[in-house]
Amino acid sequence: MKSVVALLGIVLFFVACGGADINDWQKLDLLEYDMPISIKAPSDPEIKTMDLLVQKDIWVKKGDHYNVQIFQSDASGTDAEKVKNALLTEVKNNPFFSKIVSESSEGFIYETLIDSTNYNYGFRYVKIMGDKEYIFQTGLIGTFVLEDVERMYAAVK
Predict the structure, then answer these.
(1) Which domains are present in the chain?
(2) 11 to each of 4, 19, 20, 25, how far by Cα in Å?
(3) What is the pTM of this model?
(4) Quick one: which of 67, 116, 152, 157 could link to 61 by a disulfide (CB 3.0–4.6 Å)?
(5) What is the pLDDT of residues 67-123, one digit of tens each?
(6) Cβ distance 18 to 148 under 8 Å?
């Protein structure tokens, strides 16, 4: 009986935390939203778009644990690392910035600390395809634990 209760607790934990892992997510083609890219996302996400003339903006959201925002604009060059470094500087200038959790040439995961117990995590990831630049990040609304952000980051790579 105790093992059944423990198993049920584990299942409920994963459901409450947004699901198992990224392998359960599906490929989401964003071409119908005028972005010729694909990401992985949970099934049936909410998708919103905005065209700001100089850039396009898409939000892909599912529940409280998946919220990816993608900006598409004309590429400022061909060096994704240079764009990533500019984004890194911008994030580090946030007064709540705490630390970089992980970093690659195209992106990074970071931590913010609002007070001594309120941690939040986010990411930035850059792709340059042809003459377009794509910046992926956590959605602006919501707070995310590190595991959520690691899954979203992996989903856009």
Answers:
(1) 22-156 (3.40.1000)
(2) 11, 9, 9, 17
(3) 0.85
(4) 67
(5) 999 999 999 889 999 999 999 999 999 999 999 999 999 999 999 998 888 899 999
(6) yes
